[in-house]
Amino acid sequence: MAELISLIVTTHEREDALDAVLRSLSTQTDRDFEVIVADDGSGPATADLIESWKPRLGRPLAHAWQPHEGFRASEIRNRAIIASNGSYCIFLDGDCIARPDFVARHRVLAERGWFVTGNRILMSQATCHRLGLGLGISSGANLVGAIKLVEEMGPDAVVVTILPDSNKKYLSTALAAAEPPQDGYITPQVQLDSVASVR
Question: Is pTM beyond 0.85 here?
Fold first, then answer.
């Protein structure tokens, strides 16, 4: 795929996290993309941060905004799609730090009529440190972790990713907060029930 990619980053009143996400996007190896920040009603500090990143990002950066009237992430994502120029959209949560090859890997996986998805998982400090990931949760962290494990263990490795969602996932998104290791973050007592491709 040799077309422009639109990265749509959702946010609401998290300038610290958004700054980290934009910093990670500024180091992408694939440079044929634009960024649209899908802002669900943040205040002026978010707009100021986005303006400060426009000359530094090295890629087009737009700000889609709507008034905050409750959680309306889907609506602001749709507004960002309308504002986008790319032929392929990548949706990124506003606390998800992208690896330098994030856009490049999506480009390799892109295929008309299909979508690529990842989810989030809470990992222990020790596992995060070993994989070179920040502690906490972010969309696609388990997928990135699986990719890094395969790279570390070799092409014959069997790595399974788990995509849980307990609706408690936002409890540890503060990027600077310390989170003590806890038993049970990663467990061998997990069974994969099914796998499905969606077209």
Answer: no
